[in-house]
Amino acid sequence: MWRVNAVIVSYGVVNTGIMQRFCTCSCYYTDNIFLEQYKLHVRFTSEEQFQTDYRQILQSLGCATDAQYNAVLKKIHAEVERRRNLEAQSAERKSIIKETYKPLHQHVYSLQESFLAPEFVEIVKYSLEDGASEEGLLQLITTEAGRTLYRTWLMLYAPSVYRFPVFTQDFCKDLVEELEHFERSEAQKGRPNTMNNYGRSSSSGPQSRSNKTPNAATFRKEMSVSTQILLNELGFDEDFIAPLRELYLKPISSLLYPDCGGKWLDSHKAFAVKYTLNEDLELSYHYDNAEVTLNVSLGKDFADGNLYFGDMRQVPLSETECVEVEHRVSEAVLHRGQHMHGALPITSGCRWNLVLWMRASRQRNRLCPMCNRAPRLQPSTGYGDGFTEEDTGLCVLT
Asked: Any residues with CB less than 8 A from the CB of 267 and at least 6 apart, and which?
């Protein structure tokens, strides 16, 4: 049960549990499999299909012998099996962590309004007012060039890309200490896998309007960072992430993103990521498996590592330019999940980010954002990938 001591709660009745049965699109088990050796993303439904679609392509990339081809098949079968077992393994890790891990800062696991920046609370309060509108909320915006319209709490950098304070500096410090305490512990941890997509990538990064070219890899791993912590496994979902989404972020998203499900956000996936020097430092051009994404810079001390945004994923790269957004500690960048973006490498220090993918089943039940087809659903535990068993005429259980 949520225990948020917040004035925001008084504005409405809050649903405190998962009332729907969430699902995963079956494309998760077949699509976007990355063959790192050949820098190729593939789809695999059967060995016959794979041979027809990819044997000649692989030969042109250096996979010339039967032994090399069979090694590829072995890796793909192992990856498909890993994905099918991922949910059960995650649940097992969560149970073990709950039993064995002793937190450093227990208080950070339950959202309190004292954790939040006062400016953020004011933005949310406005969004909950009778008669609140997108136009009214946009009166809080300052443009990238610094032209103040009314206040400076919300920053607009690119179409529908906003930056604003979310947490206090003190809370960010405590949360980073908790994450690093967990990282150092002997508790089991879910780790990124190089054959799985973080969102979905583009073939390259476009030219930046600041005359910098993002050094994006031609093809990308799941998460080009040194550490990823799945926050539901660590115990943040129920009392921190869920109320943050429902009580604070959904009112804002309902005004800023009404066309992509911002009003109907009903599930999420949250994780913390860490960038450090001399390790995997960069997250290349991609879009997220989300309707709306929140990305908060938690700290610590670092240099560079700005985010960059292009256009929506439907726009060809040849017609795209990028805008860089400085990522400041305690501030968040809010954007559409389907907005192409990436992260430039840091040049010194260490940076932790909290990333929250927010999903709207009413939106994605019509079209899976990852395979661009009507989703074919498979039952899942928890929030799955944000699909629900609804009789829309488009979603079919398999």
From this structure: 18, 22, 358, 359, 361, 383, 384, 386
Q: Which two tokens stand for residue 215?
A: 């050094």
CB 387 within 8 A of CB 22: yes
Q: Which of 340, 333, 346 is nearest to 252 (CA)?
A: 333
Q: Is 249 left (phi over 0), alpha (psi -120 to 50) or beta?
A: alpha
> What is the DSSP secondary structure assignment for residue 295, as one 8-state letter?
E
Give the phi and the psi of residue 123 in degrees, each rounded to 5: -60, -45
Note if the bond before 263 is cis, omega within 30 degrees: no
Q: How many C-beta atoms lie closer than 10 Å to residue 103's C-beta?
A: 15
Q: Please check the confidence at residue 344 and state whether its pLDDT lies above 70.
A: yes
pLDDT at 201: 47
What is the pLDDT, as a whole number, of residue 51? 97
Name the nearest CA neighbour of 124 among 4, 300, 273, 278: 4
3 state DSSP class of 28: helix
Cα dihedral angle (169, 232, 351, 214), rounded to 10 degrees? -120
Are the beta carbons of 48 and 66 closer than 8 angstroms? no
Angle between helices 66-100 and 47-60 (to 10 degrees): 110
pLDDT band at 106 (very low <50, low <70, confident <90, very high): very high
C-alpha 147/C-alpha 367 separation (Å) is 39
- Report how far Cα 49 is from the mean position of its chain's Cα atoms: 31
* CA dist., res. 124 & res. 137, Å (int): 10
How far is C-alpha 151 from the chain's CA centre? 28
| φ, ψ (nearest 5 deg) of residue 50 | -65, -40
Cα 80 vs. chain centroid, distance in angstroms?
Answer: 22
Question: What's the predicted TM-score (pTM) here?
Answer: 0.83
* Domains of the chain by start residue, with CATH: 7-28+108-186+197-397 (2.60.120.620), 33-101 (no CATH)
Task: Tell me the two tokens of residue 14.
Answer: 């809050």
For β-strands 141-143 and 154-158, DSSP reports them as parallel
DSSP string, 65-119: SHHHHHHHHHHHHHHHHHHHHHHHHHHHHHHHHHHH---S-GGGGS--GGGB-HH
